[in-house]
Amino acid sequence: MNLGKLGEEIAVSYLKKRGYKIIETNFSCKFGEIDIIAEKDDTICFIEVKTRTNESFGSPIEAITPFKMKHIIKSVQYYILKRHLEDKEVRLDVLEVEMIDGRANVNQIENAIWL
After folding, report:
1. Is this model's pTM higher than 0.85 or not?
2. Which domains does the chain possess?
3. Can you say whether the dihedral through the CA atoms of 42, 67, 8, 52 is positive or negative?
């Protein structure tokens, strides 16, 4: 299993333990992909998962370039329109997964990306 897939599985488990209902994973459209779409407290959360084994190339969130951010936002906007969720509260989170000595350290950054 590759590192990104492992990170997404860890992220799903982390979110479920915190009361999130997973709606969809790896939603793909012509604009890009959304790693996890979940719901908690009547808020739809679009979650970008970034997994790293060390910080030699920066922290996981630093891997989200302006180009990547633009694609995430367009994908979220498309999903909202396609699913008729315009009335729902939404937010974009980043979930950092750092694998250190075989253990996962998880950090969720709520509202990390603004629509």
Report:
1. yes
2. 3-113 (3.40.1350.10)
3. negative
